[in-house]
Amino acid sequence: MSITNESELIGMQKVSEAVAYTLKEMVNYAKPGMTTKEIDEFGAKILSDFGANSAPYLTYGFPGYACISLDNEFCHGIPSDKRILKDGDLLNIDVSAELNGYWADNGSSFVVGKDINHHQKLVDASKDILQKAINNIKGGVRIADIGHLMETEAKKRGFKVIKNLGGHGVGRSLHEEPDELLNYRNRFDNRRFKKNSVVAIETFISTDSTIAVELNDGWTMVGNKGGYMAQHEHTILITDGKPVILTQMNEILN
Q1: Which single residue of 13, 29, 181, 238 has CA 20 to 30 Å from 245?
Q2: Under 8 Å CB-to-CB from 164, ≥6 apart: which residues?
């Protein structure tokens, strides 16, 4: 959406606070021995306390309140009482919600407990790349140039990007134009970021795969060549200078 007045800005700030606080608390809550369903129910209660509604549940009938993906699951993982966290697991939590007609989206990958499986390097790369991308986004910048920056930074660190997942516009619904804010340069994409628009910008940084494929459950996505993926996502308001990070409270880049 494009922010045109103070009430729209306040609406976006409130829903962004709800998803950011929920994500932060869910990340802090996750510990070895818990199930992904326990974490989901914990987050659902926080969203409810804000008066917010789970976006994937509301929009798509997703069987959970947040997407919680474990280890080789790349995204859209279904919370389950059979998925038990262990030390060293790579976990991704993606929280999006609606509040008073406004929508926001954010996500974070992190290592559960001790980094015994050496996933932290991938996680740190994803964080760094999201920070660099956000630092370079302003009105008039080509969308494809940010994609090029993200892929270049991933390659520098020995990683790949997932080419069929991307960020998106957000605000009056979960997915809006501009859609497909990809992590690589699409040379046919001449679009530019627009001042006062709101987008969810996110990384999809992987060890082995370049395409995400859907499993038979109809939701969960994994890599076409296996491996692991880290994702970090902020909802931002684009300006003439540095973007306003509406989901700053989630502290995912700390």
Answers
A1: 29
A2: 211, 212
pLDDT tens-digit map of 3-43? 999 999 999 999 999 999 999 999 999 999 999 999 999 99
pLDDT digits (tens, 9 = 90+) for 85-121: 999 999 999 999 999 999 999 999 999 999 999 999 9
119 neighbors 167 (Cβ within 8 angstroms): no
CA–CA separation, 95 and 23 (whole Å): 6
Classify residue 57 as left (phi > 0), alpha (psi -120 to 50) or beta.
Answer: alpha
Q: Is 135 within 8 Å of 120 (Cβ atoms)?
A: no
- The string of DSSP codes covering 91-156 is EEEEEEEEETTEEEEEEEEEE-SS-TT--HHHHHHHHHHHHHHHHH--TT-BHHHHHHHHHHHHHH
Q: Cα–chain-centroid distance for residue 153?
A: 18
Residue 169's nearest CA partner among 132, 201, 129, 144 is: 201
Cα 200 to Cα 175: distance, rounded to the nearest angstrom: 9
Residue 72's CB: how many other CB atoms inside 10 A? 15
Instruction: Specify whether the CB–CB gap between 17 and 249 falls below 8 A.
Output: yes
Amino acid (1-letter code) at residue 194: K
Which residues does residue 234 pair with via DSSP β-bridges, in sequence order?
Answer: 201
Contact 248, 19 (CB under 8 A): no
Average pLDDT over residues 227-238: 98
Q: Residue 187: which residues within 8 A CB-CB, separation 6 or more?
A: 144
